[in-house]
Structure prediction request, 337 residues.
Amino acid sequence: MSDSTTTHIPSSESRGPRNRFNVLIFLSRYGVVFASLASILAFAILNDRYIQLDGILSSLSLGSPLLMLALGLTVVLTMGDFDLSVTGLTSAAGAIVVILMVNHDWSWGLAVFVGLIFCLVAGSLNGLLVSYAGMPSFITTLATGLILIGTRYESADGRNITGSTSLPDIYRDFGIGEPDPLLGVRTPVWIAAGLAILLWLLMSKTEVGRYMYAIGGNPEAARLSGINVKALRASGFALVGFMALFAAVTSTARTASSVADSGFSTLLGAYAAAFLGAAASRRTLFNVPGTVLGVIFLQAVDRGLTIEGYSTGVRDIAKGCILLLAMAFTLLGASRR
Prediction:
């Protein structure tokens, strides 16, 4: 008599395809990390100077303003918005702070406070136009970014503002400072690290952060669940302005000047870092640790190309290719979820 309760056990052949290595899944999950390690290894092999500690710490210091901007963009990107005005805001705020100190003999604290108010007002204006007026974030911030770039040029007649002999030492310390006696890390790195930790706590450990991700997933569903979508989106743009102030202070303090520049390359790098961070996430979500990884990757590539003698144009081409790669990994990860 046959046993009708016999359980069929799948053979190893039937289980095999499920456990088979999938290149697409691997790339979508670990492509950014693998590319970062491969790039670092390649440059280290090409030139011994690449792995010198002083150079690495200097690269981290130079990349701190970029990280600050990328962190701000991570917030608005999480909620499905863009902010193309961030580098224009940084340039204008830096000019205001330096002009007040150099041309009007203001104290550094008061000048920075005015710069902070300017950044918060400009960021909040973006938020109001996008969240409450219903204007598209891409076009709106592109327009306000152009206004801010024009404001910076007009404030200094299109010239660079140099204050190497006028800026107080305490202000210069925000951009260079003495290396930490224990780790050798300079002040900008500590500032960027502190901001990254605070933002990570906000987005990962609070209800506000969970609401932001909910808005990015489905804003209408978030609104119906009781989340104040408009207020949170507006606050995201204000936070971008807050981060822009720190980037402006550290960059102008390092060079002791405000440079008349549109900042397009910096904008490209900040977005590339944020998208690289999303690509490195298992769920292809924008996140603070991923953005930090993205900035480190970009700085590693930029430093390697600089040591090898490549021009600024070639480095910008490389960043553009990296941004395309990040987008490809992000889309690939989304398609594999």
Remarks:
- Residues 229-255 form the longest helix (27 residues).
- The CA atoms of residues 40 and 300 lie 7 Å apart.
